[in-house]
Amino acid sequence: MSRWKKDILSCSRILVRLLVLIALSASIFPAGCAKSGVHSPTKAPSSKTEEQIDRVAAMPLRKQFGTLPVQSATGEKTLGNESVTIDISNVQNGYYYVTYLGSNPKVKLQVTGPDRIKYTYNLTNRPTCLPVSGGNGAYELSLFENISGDQYATAFKGSFEAALENEFLPFLYPNMYVNFSERSQAVILASSLAEDATCDLEVVSRIYHYVTANITYDTEEAETVAYNYLPDIDEVLETKKGICFDYAALLAGMLRSQSIPTRLQIGYAGSAYHAWISTYIEDIGWIDGMIRFDGQSWSLMDPTFAANQSSSESLKKFIGDGSNYQTLYTY
Length: 331
Hints:
By secondary structure, the protein is of the alpha+beta class. It has helices at residues 3-28, 50-57, 185-194, 200-214, 219-224, 233-239, 244-257, 303-308, 313-319, and strands at 38-39, 78-80, 84-87, 95-100, 107-112, 118-123, 128-131, 137-148, 151-162, 216-217, 241-242, 262-269, 272-281, 285-287, 292-293, 298-299, 325-330.
């Protein structure tokens, strides 16, 4: 049997296991737990023959999304005033840029999307790329400048309508929280790991296992991390340590760079504030934060948990077993 055929069969076996898991998840997770298990945002996966599974496994990478997405602020469509410029030229591609023009050291942007979830971003004078993570519809924006203490005054209010060219675009492009470029070491490494892979699921498995095998949880940083902390995925690669936010951002950036839609999600694992990822596999749907594949079975797809499950009982208790995850924000 040729190596190519062996690769296809390997991906097929992985997909068979996932399809079995999907079938079982209906009985494992109650109907009310919409954020648990595996689901597709468009339609429920139907049962597939072995021939169909082989055909899915053989699909070339980047078939749907092309090469590494690169964002830009063209200035063709903008909102704002003397305090802020909001470039909405690429809203259809899943992102927009915000640049604060004032001198106040404490500035916040509050964004409410069609899902009515309020996102709050700390701004500086540097252009900031933000995702259209709430999907199609109206986005309301309010800029606040600090007056004193925890009191803020409104400096700008505006809105825009989003009509995405593709529902996955917000989770393919870099942004404030998942920041990368073609020169990022994380992107170069991801390309190397994915080089001879025959399906997206194999790419996910390779990158996932690299991160969980090589990055160590940084307990000291977790205890001292600043409120407005943002991950630097290349620094995480270099130091080989990080907190849950770092794990999630690194994995999301590496997978996005290979045109695999990945959501960085922030919320609660039990009573603990936590970050994890969800990944979309074509013809399967979103593999949510509860599930991972260790080569033999599916369990929790939380990179922090996976990297530390054999060495840190306290971390397992901190994160939980995956059944108590509650998503608050998606980036």
